[in-house]
Amino acid sequence: MHTLAVALWGNGNRLSQDIDRSVPTEYLKVLREHYGVDRHQTLENDLAQLRCDDRNTYQDPNLLNLCLRGRMRNKAGQQYCPACLVERCYFRRSWRLSIHPVCTEHHCLLLNRCPHCSSVIDPTKTSPMSKDIGYCAFCWNNLRVDNTVLEFETPKLLLAIQDSVKTGWFEYENLRLRACIFMQGLWRIVYALYGIRSEKLNIWETLCSSFGTNYQPLTKNRPYYNFKDESPEVRLKILSVVDRLLVGWPDTFIAVGKELGLGISHFDPANKGMPYWLDEIVRRDLNKGWYRVNTEEMQSCLLYMQKNQIPITRSGLARELGLDVSKKLSPNEKLLFEEFRRRH
């Protein structure tokens, strides 16, 4: 296999990557030309409609790792439904998706660990002595065990995402857009839930309390990628909260965002841009610094604060104007503010 990879691509290391996730498009093009298959018959389009961008990178938060390839066993791997393996013993394509922590057919959580030895699931390392891939690759015990049935209905958001895998279009509430565009916005919302930009406000804990979800801490380190490493139970909780935020879009989202004081810095701190369906709402209804006051409005506000004996500080001025406290004053505003403080 290494010789074949070198002959095709000049680099045998490509076999150590998930070919449907991290191999560049030009490598798949060479593979297609050598085998003479149609473009739509290759892995190039496998789950492509749910990718965040056109680049096949291992950092895509939606696709779980296909196999370990020497990685440590404490990293996340595949997930599976024991009941599905009993019926037909093969790993479904939807199990590769981190946003599918639930089996909608049997209404149970997927498992991402062996129930016997707690090792990650890696069907590519199954021993040849095993009867099929329904056995753990490390302890050789049967993975088909009884699983707990969920006590609540599967969030409708998960069903909508599952349909979008087949059609390429996401339709839910007042949203109808391409699945890849929706996924870009979904990861922005997940980023805000992790609260990387909120040192004093635990957004995730507050939302769990508001929506009646059992609180469980999240790993606050590069959330796009840590979402894959979370257990199916935690991923289900995150997606359930997002589902509640999208109900009646965008009214619920705006109300919760204003209550928590969310702004564009929580969703797009690096200012790299967001998909239009989320960017419009965040900038128009949540970003407190979207409207910039003029000097007349600022001077009028300063006189009002003086008359009502309100301490003249930058944070107090920002609150009275309805702006973000972290907003920087322009040179003219800063000069006016300093002159007013000196005179009064």
From TrEMBL:
<dbReference type="Pfam" id="PF06527">
    <property type="entry name" value="TniQ"/>
</dbReference>
<dbReference type="InterPro" id="IPR009492">
    <property type="entry name" value="TniQ"/>
</dbReference>
<protein>
    <recommendedName>
        <fullName>TniQ domain-containing protein</fullName>
    </recommendedName>
</protein>
<feature type="domain" description="TniQ">
    <location>
        <begin position="5"/>
        <end position="110"/>
    </location>
</feature>
